[in-house]
Specification:
Shape: globular
Strand content: under 5%
Helix content: 55-70%
Radius of gyration: 27 Å
Distance between the termini: 33 Å
Number of strands: 4
Length: 416
């Protein structure tokens, strides 16, 4: 919530589209440090052959340098300490002082009165103040100014806007055709014999660089048209990427499970790695394109008067649109997968026959569903992208705010 609010209040209107780029890059770097970093420190071989000799520690065969419990405990303590330090020592400009004046949180208090705008010039350069005035942006209201009940009343009014209802419908439905690739693909690859170390290796080598570069490149290609970027990535995601995922899983099952495919072990290995890298790269690309376009569109359309709350509301529906397909598709996989019947042969080896893997027929059905979604919803997406800013605003309280502002001007509380 804080990050959403910062992106709208700290950045000028023309730079709000850069907030989602920072969001995407930061999330990818954080994911890399917490996931790949932990696996590297937890790996037994790396700990014994690399980290302990490097740090001059005693040998402990079979034990990783960091355990899961120790990692979680350290990071939890680290986050609490940083939070406390920020709350105690970080000062920020309070833009909500009555009468239009500003002061620094923790410096001004009610007893000393509000500082004048002349004093504030020491905190904000004059040039920066002029630029912010030229932007003519609306000030964001905090919940403490209008109250919790009024905040939720305004959010409910937002939900009732036709533009927001169309956007909510898009957010709640578009992830279903992609649910297998998002939630089951790598689980199925591990089931077919792909090691978890290999999946972890893909993150720093493929996912992280693409997660940083793709949002920047996408913004330059589709500048000012985030939903065109969204639809291009979605069409690619439900067709070509789904096909590459299926081929990758077939190659994984054949190469790691029962020998070779397409003419020999050497060819099989090349095809396996090529498809694995392509599958990972394409999924990271389309995910980054859609996430960045989605956040950029939110940032440009929300009502700045309740910007942080508005952004959080839209992100809540976006997250819900990604979580319910996950549970639903896991249920379908469990219902329609039939495990093979296994028995021990005369030579003592286990022999399995029969069974049915639900992944591949479900992927065909979901890809067809994705094509139907494109045909049915593409016009709605285009319509939503063309709506004016006024269609996303409730205008609640504007008349009252205008009357109060005129009264303050008459009293001399604000400078013309």
């Amino acid at each position: 919530i804080a990050v959403d609010g910062w992106a709208l209040t700290m950045l000028s209107k023309k730079n709000r589209g850069k907030g989602p780029i920072c969001n995407s890059i930061g999330q990818n770097i954080g994911y890399f440090l917490s996931y790949v970093g932990f696996l590297a420190l937890n790996d037994v071989d790396s700990s014994e052959n690399l980290w302990r000799p490097m740090l001059g520690m005693k040998s402990k065969p079979g034990v990783g340098l960091v355990s899961l419990g120790g990692f979680v405990k350290f990071m939890g303590t680290f986050m609490l300490v940083i939070t406390v330090l920020i709350s105690l020592f970080k000062k920020e400009v309070d833009m909500s002082i009555e009468g239009g004046d500003m002061c620094t949180v923790g410096v001004c208090d009610g007893s000393s009165g509000s500082r004048s705008n002349n004093d504030m010039e020491t905190l904000l350069p004059k040039k920066k103040q002029q630029q912010e005035e030229d932007e003519d942006d609306d000030d964001e209201l905090d919940a403490y100014e209008i109250g919790i009940a009024e905040t939720y009343r305004r959010l409910w009014a937002v939900v009732k806007l036709p533009a927001v209802q169309s956007l909510i419908l898009i957010l709640l439905t578009y992830r279903l055709p992609c649910a297998l690739s998002d939630n089951v693909k790598f689980l199925k690859a591990v089931e077919f014999g792909l090691s978890k170390q290999t999946t972890a290796l893909l993150s720093p080598t493929i996912v992280l660089p693409l997660g940083i570069m793709v949002p920047i490149i996408g913004t330059k290609i589709w500048k000012g048209h985030p939903l065109k970027q969204f639809m291009w990535a979605y069409k690619f995601r439900v067709t070509f990427v789904a096909l590459i995922d299926v081929l990758m899983l077939l190659a994984t099952r054949s190469f790691l499970g029962s020998g070779s495919i397409m003419g020999g072990e050497g060819t099989s290995k090349a095809i396996f790695w090529a498809l694995l890298i392509l599958s990972t790269a394409f999924q990271a690309t389309v995910f980054s394109l859609q996430f960045n376009s989605q956040m950029t569109f939110f940032a440009h359309r929300v009502d700045p008067a309740i910007g942080g709350s508005y952004m959080t509301l839209l992100n809540t529906f976006a997250n819900l649109g990604g979580t319910w397909p996950s549970s639903f598709i896991m249920y379908l996989i469990g219902q329609y997968t039939v495990p093979p019947t296994c028995s021990v042969g005369d030579d003592g080896a286990e022999v399995c026959t029969g069974g049915r893997d639900a992944y591949f027929p479900l992927q065909m059905v979901l890809s067809g569903l994705g094509i139907v979604w494109i045909c049915v919803m593409s016009k709605r997406v285009q319509h939503v992208s063309e709506l004016p800013d006024d269609a996303w605003r409730t205008h609640i309280g504007e008349s009252e705010d205008g009357e109060e502002e005129m009264q303050e001007y008459k009293k001399g509380g604000k400078h013309a």
